[in-house]
Amino acid sequence: MKKVRVISAVLASLMLCGCLFTACGQSAEELEGEPSYAEASELQEEMAPEYLVEDMDTPLSDGGAGGSGGSGGSSLKAGADGSYTGAINIVENQAPGTTVYQKNGSSIDVSNASKGYVMVRQTGVSKRLKVQIVKDDKKYNYDLNNAGNYEAFPLQMGNGTYKIRIMQNKEGNTYFELYSAEIGVTLDSEYAPFLAPSQYVNYNASSATVKKAFDLCSAAATDVEKLTIVYNWIINNITYDTQKAATVQTGYLPSVDTILQSKTGICFDYAAVMAAMLRSQGVPTKLVVGTVSAADLNHAWNEVYLEGKGWVTVRLYFEGSAWERMDPTFGASGNANVEQYIGDGSNYTTLRIY
């Protein structure tokens, strides 16, 4: 009975989580105030065309397959208690200034674009800021701090020409461009954006979450083992926070170390922690935002790339293994009734990928 109540609470809370996903690549009608999707058509009419961050519904990014993904069978140093004792070397966000586009306080550092991300900051502006990243007909939108600090944004739409725009709020939900730069991107690997930190999957070599991942995977020989260990640790140690789901504010960003410490979170948190842990272990991992079940509940989950299998999502079967799901939120509920929502994976609809 307790497990039934848990999964019911999770599903009910997913409906309340809808507001936070407006922070995950907002559409134009959600740029200021982040209203619900139901209000979109009304707001579209209110927007001044010359300031409109145009047509900002975020399409899908195709991760593709093929090539080498994660770190495979790299060996780690483990202490007697199983904790990791070696150096922690991971991909970290950096703005070295090798290639920077800048003007009037706007800075777009593209020095590490080949590694799947750009660093953006704006100084001297107190009004609300956005970053829009455009490639072909695809657009992703993010909040940008106005404290003048660099933030990392992924280049998850493959090779090609990207336009990076820094936008300032004018009034209401209208924005104008402060500065922009067009760059040609050739990724070191198509998996690069999913092996690096970013605004939504934010960590560094000093993060407790990264250290925990190294501890957990100190004896793992393959990416499959790493995935199995990380997934099982998350679903057995982090519980769903229904109160947080009911009160989370628009613009919320997961803090993976805070989640690790509290051992509670919402679906966005589960997916961010799993992505951070696996990326730090060299396993390409996407944070996916979309809907699940016939009721179209707002949700977040992960896709993971495994050599020889490609991108795996929602369900994953290993011969002789006891676990199946790639959805840590539902997996943590431990309830068989979750199958009616997960089904064979066809109940999941991807909206945005990070």
How would you sum up this structure in a few lines?
By secondary structure, the protein is α+β, with helices and mostly antiparallel strands. The chain contains nine helices and 14 strands. It starts with a helix and ends with a strand.
Please outline the helices and strands.
Blueprint: H1 2-16, H2 40-46, E1 100-103, E2 106-109, E3 117-122, E4 129-135, E5 138-144, E6 151-154, E7 160-171, E8 174-185, H3 208-216, H4 223-237, E9 239-240, H5 242-247, H6 256-262, E10 264-265, H7 267-280, E11 285-292, E12 297-306, E13 310-313, H8 328-333, H9 339-342, E14 348-353
Parallel strand pairs: 9-10
Antiparallel strand pairs: 1-2, 2-3, 3-6, 4-5, 4-7, 7-8, 11-12, 11-14, 12-13
Structural overview:
This protein has a domain of 192 residues: Roll (C8orf32 fold), CATH 3.10.620. Helix content is 23%, strand content 25%. It has a four-stranded antiparallel beta sheet, with no helix packed on it. Strands 5-4-7-8 form a four-stranded antiparallel beta sheet, with no helix packed on it. The protein is built from nine helices and 14 strands. α3 crosses α7 and α6 packs across α7. The chain has 354 residues and is an alpha+beta fold.
Poorly predicted tracts of residues:
1-16, 18-30, 32-74, 314-326
Shape: globular
In percent, how helical is the residue content?
10-25%
**CATH class of one domain, please?**
Alpha Beta
Question: What Rg do the Cα atoms give?
Answer: 20 Å
CATH topology annotation of one domain: C8orf32 fold
Any guess at the CATH architecture of one domain? Roll
**Count of DSSP H/I helices:** 9
